[in-house]
Design goal:
By secondary structure, this protein is mostly beta strands. The protein has 1 helix and 10 strands, in the order βββββββββαβ. The protein is globular, with a radius of gyration of 13 Å.
């Protein structure tokens, strides 16, 4: 039986990990929310996907079940690894494009410190 893929986000490590059940598939560096606009902790679901959403969202957007928050690319690759966003999870465009092919709508996203 296949276990579903899911995403683990560590805000303090600025890392996104993709799992298939208990098996770690890939680790990505990310940018996360600033102190005044932190990335929300909790468990969410990917609700929608959009290629080339425009603006600062880079090559791809994956919206979370927390309105106005998502995992997306960036037009500022130097922001990866830093506390820079308004709460969203930023990835290099090549990474978010790769991740988007691995996770369907409905994928669980666990965000913690």
């Amino acid at each position: 039986m296949s276990v579903a893929k899911w995403i683990d986000v560590s805000v303090s490590k600025r890392q996104l990990k993709l799992f298939d059940g208990r098996r770690l598939l890939k680790v990505y560096r990310i940018g996360v929310g600033r102190i005044l606009t932190p990335t929300p902790r909790g468990t969410y679901t990917i609700m929608n996907k959009q290629r080339n959403p425009g603006g600062p969202f880079g090559a791809f957007w994956m919206g979370l079940s927390k309105p106005h928050y998502g995992i997306h690319g960036t037009n500022d690759p130097n922001s990866i690894g830093k506390y820079v966003s308004h709460g969203c999870i930023r990835m290099h465009n090549r990474d978010v494009l790769e991740l988007s092919t691995q996770v369907p709508i409905g994928t669980r996203v666990a965000i913690h410190r």
